Structures are given as structure tokens and as C-alpha cells.
Amino acid sequence: MPKAIRINQAGGPEVMQYVDVQVGEPGAGEVRIKHHAVGLNYIDVYFRDGTYEQPMPGSIGLEASGVIEAVGAGVGDFKVGDRVAYTGRPLGAYATERLVPASLLVKLPDSIEHDTAAAMMLQGLTVDYLFNRSFPLKGGETILFHAAAGGVGLIACQWARALGVTVIATASTQDKLDLAKAHGATHLINYRSENVVERVKEITGGRGVPVVYDGVGADTFKISLDCLAKFGTLVSFGNASGVVPPFTLNDLSSRGSLYVQRPTLFHYTAERASLDQMAARLFEVVGSGKVKASIGQRYALADAAQAHRDLEARKTTGSTILVP
Question: Per the database record, which ranges form the Enoyl reductase (ER) domain (predicted)?
């Protein structure tokens, strides 16, 4: 019988329950997918702990890869047996099989395995919009990327290297910094033992960087602002340490007429044409070998609670997948 993770209330990892579920046949515009791998992302924690609200009882998970087992009415671009991947709502990827809107799906090239797809769809598409839409990189820039040893960070380090961009990477341990360096980072800062702002100014000859990509949130927000050059842009795309506290516009003007963004991946992928373009860029850079999904951990789907504990304790590196 199909299995899935369900939650009845917001809370810690213990609220996730591994239960039997009924899946049924796909309706109009839907397909039924048997999952081969499920992606774990920090946004899953937000939906579990109530940072992002959802109706209860609820589901969890935004990313997976698998094979189509049934197709509903009106689905013309996909067929039974297609290898596919997806990221997006509705929640529910933490499952052995499920119904998914066909509008979320992309076909997997033969060169990309299911584990790789599940490890990189959300994170890889995130890097695509960060580098190509939020603050388009042309090559030659020096950028600051926080939490560079995480799943998004390791993809970003590789992609930046392919673009000819110099990455200043931050992380919490030397092992994580070494991992970021192995994936393309040039300058390394341990944010627990070094002054990030001073090091960035030292590296950049006092100028600061034109852009900071910050998925950490509360702990690094003001630090990120202080690392920017005049007219610089802070792209705040996550809340791993908590939601960014209130700030005033004077915090931006006093530091040099700065810009701040808070983008969300699913706004960029809402239109089919945009999703196809982003996925094509991701598959191209992965297919070329310039970017590889670094899978640091694998857990059984039934052990999703432990995976969340390790993620929140910052014990993980790279991408994490759940195996149905």
C-alpha cells in the first residue's frame, strides 16, 4: 500500500507520521507518479513547524522524481512510463506515490538519474533564478554566498565557477568550507570564528561586493547589508536561522543606496515557458559536467523526522534525499 508522511499539527520533527494512504486515479490535468527519490529542503521545515502555514491535517515535501504510472484527462505532453521530476505545490512529495498536476512536471533527460534530479530540482532552479533573474551575473564579479556548503550553496559555487564568477563562501566549520572550496569557492570565511564584514572588505579592497545571496535570514541580514558595495543588492531567499527582523529604509540608504529582494522560486516557475527555460538551463549545465548535485545524505522516507533533526542541527552538507 502507498505510504506518505502526514502531519496533524505544526511542531518539531516528531509531528511527522509515516502512514498508509489512498492515492486513487488521476483527475483532469493530473498524473500519478511512483517516486524513486524525494528531495529534502529547508522550506520543508518551515511548513512543518508552522513558519509557513498550511491547512491541517497536512502533507509535506515539494520535490521528487519518478515514473508516471497513470495519466488523467487533458494531459497531452506526458505519458505512462515517462521519467519526470518536479518541484512546487501542492505539498505532498514525502510519499511513495502521489497525484501531481502535470503543469509542475519536466521530463528528465536520459543522462540524469532520479537521485540527481530529486537532489537538484528545487535547489538547482533556485540557483538559476538567483544568478539569471534576481541579480544576473555576467562573469567577472566577486559575490558573497552564505551557507555555501548546503545544497543550494554547492550548486551555486559550481555554477558561479562556470560563469567566471569569484565566490566568497561562508560556512560554520572548516570541513564545510573545504567542501565549498572543492566545489568552486575561492575565498572562505568561518562565520563563527571570523568577522565576516572585515574579511569581505579585506578581500575586495574595501569596496564590498555587488551582491550577497543570503538563505540564512535573521542571523546574517545586517552582516549581509554591511558587506555590500554602494548600490549593491542583497538577495534574501531563505530563513534558515529565522525570519529577517523589521528594518527601515534608512538601513539601506545609509549604507550606500542599497537594494533588497525577497524572491520565491515558485513565482519564477509559475509560467510554463519560464519553467521550461529554467529547467533547460539547469539540465544543460548539469549535463555538461560543470555542475553536479552533491548528495551528502540519504535517509529512508520513513526516517524523515531524523533527516529534519540533522538538517536543523546543521549536520548535513550538500543535498539530502529521502528514499521511498
Answer: 11-322
Q: What percent of the chain has pLDDT over 70?
A: 100
Q: Cell 542599497, residue?
A: 258
Backbone phi and psi for residue 58, each to the nearest 5 degrees, phi listed first: -125, 175
Residues 162-180: tens digit of each pLDDT: 999 999 999 989 999 999 9
The architecture that CATH gives domain 139-262 is: 3-Layer(aba) Sandwich (3.40)
The mean of the pLDDT values for the chain is 95
User: What Rg value do the Cα atoms of the chain yield, rounded?
Assistant: 20
CA 142 from chain centre, in angstroms, equals 22
For residues 252 and 67, give the distance between their C-alpha atoms in angstroms, rounded to a whole number.
Answer: 48
Examine residue 57 and say whether the peptide bond preceding it is cis (omega within 30 degrees of 0).
yes
**DSSP output for 31-55:** EEEEEEEEEE-HHHHHHHHTSS---
SS3 state at 185: coil
Q: Quote the pTM value.
A: 0.89
Reported as a pLDDT band with limits 50, 70 and 90, residue 217 is: confident
pLDDT score recorded for residue 270: 92
Q: Which residue has the cell 533527516?
A: 307
In the chain, domain spans = 3-120+294-323, 139-262
Hey, is 294 helix, strand or coil?
Answer: coil
pLDDT above 90 for 99: yes
CATH number of 3-120+294-323: 3.90.180.10
281 in Cβ contact with 128 (< 8 Å)? yes
Does the bond joining 101 to the residue before it have cis omega, within 30 degrees of 0? no
Task: Answer positive or negative: Cα dihedral of 185, 240, 278, 104.
Answer: positive
Cis, peptide link before residue 245, omega less than 30° from 0: no
Split at pLDDT 50, 70, 90, the class of 241 is confident
Count of CB atoms within 10 A of residue 222's CB?
15
